[in-house]
């Protein structure tokens, strides 16, 4: 099957290309600002894009859901996005494993209650 004229690579569309450029630029700027290496930059960009798609899906498509104040939602989304982006740049996948504290290099210690049998 031959590709049609409208079936171009998505990254060739100007708006999409500009969005990718903006994500890469903000990732570099944030990494410089927080002193992170670019090791986890691609993962950080992917997480950013996934969160963006989820937010857009929620506010544009799910119009029947009884949303609260949209400005508060947007503000909370942006804050959580930036926290996730920073954490990803600093710790990569290590920050997403259960039992890990992203602020330290050692795993967080949890006390597990001992099982009591009757």
Would you count the extended β strands for me? 0
**Rounded average pLDDT:** 79
Contiguous uncertain segments of 5+ residues: 101-118
User: From the alpha-carbon coordinates, what is the Rg to the nearest angstrom?
Assistant: 20 Å
N- to C-terminal distance? 68 Å
User: Helical residue percent?
Assistant: 40-55%
* SSE class: mainly alpha
Largest sheet: none
Strand fraction equals under 5%
Q: Rough shape?
A: globular
Helix and strand element order:
HHH
Number of helices: 3
**Oligomeric description of these chains:** single chain
Features:
single chain; 118 residues; mainly alpha; 3 helices; 54% helix; 0% strand; globular; disordered C terminus
Topology:
Blueprint: H1 14-34, H2 41-61, H3 70-91
Structural commentary:
The protein has 118 residues and is mostly helical. The chain is 54% helix and 0% strand. It has 3 helices and no strands. α1 (14-34) crosses α2 (41-61), α1 crosses α3 and α2 packs antiparallel against α3. The longest helix has 22 residues, at 70-91. It is globular. The N and C termini lie far apart (68 Å). Mean pLDDT is 79; it is low at 101-118.
Could you give a quick summary of the protein structure above?
This protein has 118 residues and is mainly α. Helices cover 54% and strands 0% of the residues.
